[in-house]
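Data availability (excerpt). The following record was deposited with the supplementary files.
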Amino acid sequence: MTSRLTIFLAACLFACSLCSNAQTITSVKGYVIDTGGEAVLGNAIIINPQDSSLIKGTSFLEGHFELSGLNQQQVLLKITSLGFQDTYLTLLYEDSTQVDAGNIVLRAAANALNEVVVMAKAPLVRGRSDGSIEINIENTPLATSTSVDEILSRSPGVVYDAEGQIGIFGKGAAILFINGVRVSNDQLSTLSPTQVVRIEIISNPGPRYDAQGQAVINIITRRNENEGVQAVLKNYYSYSTFAGYDNRTNTDLSYTKGAWSVNGNYGLQVGNDRMILTTTRVRNAPHDLFSSELTTDWRYKYDNYSNYGLGLQYDRNRNSYLSLQYTGAYEKLGGDQLSANTIIDHETGLYTSTLAWDELSLDNTLNANYVWTIDTLGANLFVGGQYASYRHDFNNDIRQSATVANTKNTTLINNVGEGNIRILSIQADYTKALKRGGTLEAGGKLAYVNNYSFTTFLNIDKNGTATKDDQLSSDFDYTERVPAGYVNFRGRIRKGWDYSLGMRAEWTNYTLLTRMEEEAALTDRYGNVFPNASLTAKFSESVNAYFTYSSRINRPSYQSLNPFVIYQDSFTSIQGNPSLQPAQVHAFELGAALHSWSIKTGYNHTLNLISGGAFQAEDDPRVYILRLSNIRKEDAYFASISKTVSTRWWNSTNTASMSYNNVIDDTGIFARRANQPYYYLYSQNRFNVGKWITLYAMAWYQSEKQDGIYLREAQSSVNFSLEKKFLKDALTCNLEVNDLFHQVRAAGAYRLGTTDILYGRKYNTHYVRFSISYQMGRLKQSGYRNKDVGASEKQRAQ
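Predicted structure:
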């Protein structure tokens, strides 16, 4: 019933956007003056807010200007004048096709408040000519998220698989970037959500980006480009009947004076979280009857989850700067993992366990950047380096009990260990504008990674004596070196027709050493070349089309290679697979944009697909090991249509997508099942109730998915929030209800070997949250910038 209601709500919101028949602006005029009321001379420029392209411009000598022949539902007006700050106005059609902006007051460029005049809020989503989209965070429901991971989970087109890995609907696994350079999921914990300004979803990344993954999610952080002091304080309090309370406080502070800029932040999260997984495993062969009903309840207690950062920048001159940035996280985890497993085979037994967490994670990253704008034609040089370390220590007590034939036995296990990942990388990028209008991009990167970890299981007898369990205990030492280089050329066939041709080459050299029952070492070297091509055609200011091809690779994460045992219960564990091979991906996409509409379709061909499940242990038919493996290939077809709406009182972005996936396993390990297309609906809306309050409504629905091997059940979410600003917009209060019907889940089924497996994972997504934010200080022109560079390998550090 709730799923049908979710579909109905999402469909209604989408239908409203289709029925909206917004008129268009045909002309814009205004009068530009200074703070003293005197007319000034300068330029008036009309910009397309969807892709930032120039529509029309004119100059004016005595303040008055007029631009006609526009035919746009929404435009961004930019006013420039020598000695004054650039001023922007977002203009929407209201009651007339001829918009009079009235008097536009310009502020002096030096020692003055850098104001931006806004007549309407920015659109929620902006499309680009290459099919990428830009998601605005400020003044949207995403702004109340307590973590960057939560922001992503609410973003259009971003989906999570059954293992919680981030992906893009229709494309597959996505890699994360911060300000243009790749990072890991672990590093997201060091980033304050209040620092995120927007998110770019790049479905067809070029050779400048690392070849890992099938899409790129680029997180753009707040940059202080003004002079002075500013502080932002924000607190979020969440409560759910499922997990209890959670509280997060964030503080951001920026200071700029002359050529120096400083930026710092601190965030603290305390409270509770929860996740429940139910798993059923059944074997029905006459000689092998078996059933297992397992429930695992993770009850997390965040004793102290802190993230912090400090950045320093020195502007050598107008064309170059040096910057240094440190980010870190301290995460102290307590709580319990409870499991109950009822097994029926030749006997019936109830097996329970309680794992008491005592874990500490320390993450530290240091970035150093140098940027030089060489000339006014577009030549620039970037050089950066990064050192990152991740340390995870744990000392967990496990109490197990087994009840068979009314006899109960209890055992105690102590699991201690640590994990260490160190990453060192250096990167350089050079861009040169050529004489005939083309652009040449070239760069290189050298990355070094070392991942060392160990886990020790100690069986504790009744006398308190500890005995090491050599079968479960292990060491893991992995070293990887990846030098890479790329070149990309952008050119023009004719006016409005642009193309790019590029290639990226990566050489991987790794050594893997494991110590479990016996020592094993693995060394390998391999090279890959990844071609890219694109063609874009601009037929008018509001009509364009594109075609792209990209070649990608999905390397297994360091954790998925590590045979390290993660305990779930006495019959279930999670282990890595050192034999995993990278997956190769070839992606094609064709798309077009027409005014506020956009459509795209594509095809992805993946070899050596990385997936997995619960594998039966060879030495004990009751024991199952959750691990990844390679599957021969996957063919995926997708299509999507999007519509945006911008009126004086309503902003909306809506997407309807469909995908058909066909996974083929020629090993016979996975059983074949039917295929069927599945679809995805998303609608995010902002309603301005006069100047009194803002209402946000968001809904998404993902239907049942069958790809030939796996079945994933439908899931959905409906969110509402109210926002009110006070004290000249310095104070913002927000009340939110998330996942109203508690339908966000990961549930499905598959058959592996002779075992039928059903699973259902329930998350802490149904909650009420109140957040309050206060901004202090005023800023003037200047800026701090830092580009996080070396993190190509961090995505795999999880």
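Summary of structural features: The chain has two domains: 2-120, 126-796.
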